[in-house]
C-alpha cells in the first residue's frame, strides 16, 4: 500500500523555501529469509537490529562449531530468544520477532537427522555450503553425490534446501564461481531431485536469475541489498573497500541491473534475504579481510532505496513481505511497518563483542528512506 501525503515544506527559510513530497509506505511486516545473527555476545547487537526490521528471520547455521542437528538448533534458538528479551526495542517488534532455524548439511548428515528435524516442527530448512566456499564453511559438503539419501528425505519431508551457490575449485575465477555452480552442480541437482524445494541464496548474476526463472515454482532465490545497490566498481575503484566485500563477490554492473529487474518484477520466485553477516571492523579492515556485509540495522531503508531508484517502490511489499512466506507455505504477518522517504544517516559503527566495533554497510552515508518510529 503506497500513499503520498500532502507536500510539506522541507526548508522554512523564506529565501530557500522548497517543497518536497514526503511519501509513506505501510507494508505487511517483512521477513528476512537469510541472516547471520552469530552467537554469544554478538546476539545482543544482531538480534535487536534484526527484530527492529523483521518478523521471521531464517538464521544461518554457520556457527563455530556449526548447527548440525535439531537439538543444537533448538538450543541456538533459545539463546536468540534470551538476547531478544534483553533487547532495547519496542514491544511490538519484540513480540513479532520469530527466528526460524536451519541445519548445516555436512558429509555426515543422515536421513534420520532430516526426519527428526521435520518432526520437530522447528526447523525451516537445511543449508548447503560447498566446503570452503565462504565464511565458516569448512564443515560443508565435499561430495554432493554422497548426499542422495538426505536429499530424498528432504523431498519426502518437504524441507527446503538453501544453497550457497559457488564452486570452490581453485582454478575457477572468483567472478565465475556462481555461474559455474549453476551450470554444473545446481543443474544436476534439480534434474536428480525434481521435487526438492530449493532457494539459491544471495544470487549475484544474471546467470543465476535466468536459471531460477527457467525452473518450476519449487526453485526460488534470495537477493541481498548490496547486490541490488552496488557492483564490483564500488568494491574496487579508487581503493579496496572492505565493507563491500562479501561472498558471492559483487559482480559487473550488468548483473546488478538484472538483479534489480527481477527483484522489482513482481515475480514471486525472488524475495528478500539480507545475508547480513557481521564481522568486527578490525576483521574486515585487515590485510586478509573477512567476507560479509552487515546490513541488519538498515536493511529496509536499503531495499527501499534500491526499489525507489528504479521507480518501483510499489513492488517492495511483494518482495519483502509476501513472496518468501508464500514460498515457505507460511501465512503473511499480521502487523505492519511504515517506511518514509525522510533521510537517515547510517551510523559509523555499533559497539560489538564488548570491546570491538561493527561497521554497517554504507556507514556514515545518508539513505533517502527510513523506518517511521
Ligand atoms: N556472505 C558472506 O560473505 N559471508 C557469510 C557467509 C555466507 O552467507 O556466504 C558469513 O557468514 O560471514
Ligand atoms: Zn553464502
Ligand atoms: Zn549468508
Mean pLDDT: 94
CATH class: Alpha Beta
Q: Biggest β-sheet: count, sense, barrel? A: 8 strands, parallel
Structural class: alpha/beta
CATH architecture descriptor: Alpha-Beta Barrel
> Helix content range of the residues, please?
25-40%
- The CATH topology label is TIM Barrel
- Low-confidence stretches at least 5 residues in length (pLDDT < 50)? 1-18
**CATH homologous superfamily - what is it?**
Metal-dependent hydrolases
- Could you say which overall geometry the principal axes of the C-alpha atoms support? globular
What is the strand tally?
18
Strand content: 15-25%
Bound molecules: N-carbamoyl-L-aspartate, zinc ion
Radius of gyration, in Å, reads: 20 Å
Amino- and carboxy-terminal Cα gap: 18 Å
**Tally of separate helices:** 13
Q: How many separate domains?
A: 1
How are strands sequenced across the largest beta sheet? 5-6-7-8-9-10-11-12
GO cellular component, one term: cytoplasm
Modified residues (N6-carboxylysine): 127
Subunit structure: Homodimer.
Cofactor: Zn(2+)
Amino acid at each position: 500500500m503506497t500513499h503520498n501525503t500532502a507536500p510539506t515544506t522541507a526548508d522554512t527559510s523564506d529565501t530557500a523555501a522548497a517543497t518536497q513530497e514526503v511519501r509513506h509506505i505501510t507494508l505487511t511486516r517483512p521477513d528476512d529469509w537469510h541472516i547471520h545473527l552469530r552467537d554469544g555476545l554478538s546476539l545482543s547487537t544482531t538480534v535487536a537490529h534484526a527484530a527492529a526490521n523483521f518478523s521471521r528471520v531464517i538464521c544461518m547455521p554457520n556457527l563455530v562449531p556449526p548447527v548440525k542437528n535439531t537439538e543444537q538448533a533448538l538450543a541456538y534458538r533459545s539463546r536468540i530468544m534470551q538476547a531478544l528479551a534483553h533487547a532495547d526495542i519496542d514491544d511490538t517488534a519484540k513480540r513479532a520477532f520469530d527466528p526460524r532455524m536451519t541445519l548445516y548439511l555436512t558429509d555426515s548428515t543422515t536421513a534420520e537427522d532430516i526426519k527428526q528435524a521435520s518432526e520437530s516442527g522447528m526447523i525451516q530448512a537445511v543449508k548447503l555450503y560447498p566446503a570452503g566456499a565462504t565464511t565458516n564453511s569448512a564443515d560443508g559438503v565435499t561430495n554432493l553425490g554422497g548426499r542422495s539419501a538426505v536429499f530424498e528425505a528432504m523431498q519426502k519431508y518437504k524441507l527446503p534446501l538453501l544453497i550457497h551457490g559457488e564452486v570452490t575449485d581453485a582454478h575457477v575465477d572468483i567472478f565465475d564461481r556462481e555461474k559455474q555452480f549453476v551450470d554444473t552442480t545446481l543443474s544436476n541437482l534439480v534434474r536428480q531431485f525434481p521435487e526438492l524445494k530449493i532457494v539459491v541464496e544471495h544470487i549475484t548474476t544474471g546467470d543465476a536469475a535466468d536459471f531460477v526463472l527457467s525452473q518450476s515454482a519449487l526453485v526460488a532465490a534470495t537477493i541481498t541489498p548490496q547486490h541490488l545497490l552496488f557492483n564490483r566498481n564500488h568494491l574496487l575503484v579508487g581503493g579496496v573497500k572492505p565493507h563491500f566485500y562479501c561472498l558471492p563477490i559483487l559482480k559487473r554492473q550488468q548483473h546488478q541491473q538484472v538483479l534489480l529487474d527481477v527483484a522489482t518484477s513482481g515475480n514471486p520466485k525472488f524475495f528478500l534475504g539480507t545475508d547480513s553477516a557481521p564481522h568486527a571492523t578490525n576483521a574486515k579492515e585487515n590485510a586478509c579481510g573477512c567476507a560479509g556485509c552487515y546490513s541488519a540495522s538498515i536493511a529496509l531503508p536499503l531495499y527501499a532505496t534500491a526499489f525507489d531508484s528504479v521507480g518501483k517502490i510499489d513492488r517492495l511489499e511483494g518482495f519483502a513481505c509476501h513472496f518468501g512466506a508464500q514460498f515457505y507455505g507460511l501465512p503473511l504477518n499480521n502487523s505492519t511497518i511504515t517506511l518514509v522517504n525522510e533521510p537517515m544517516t547510517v551510523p559509523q559503527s555499533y559497539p560489538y563483542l564488548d570491546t570491538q566495533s561493527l561497521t554497517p554497510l554504507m556507514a556514515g552515508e545518508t539513505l533517502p528512506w527510513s523506518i517511521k518510529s
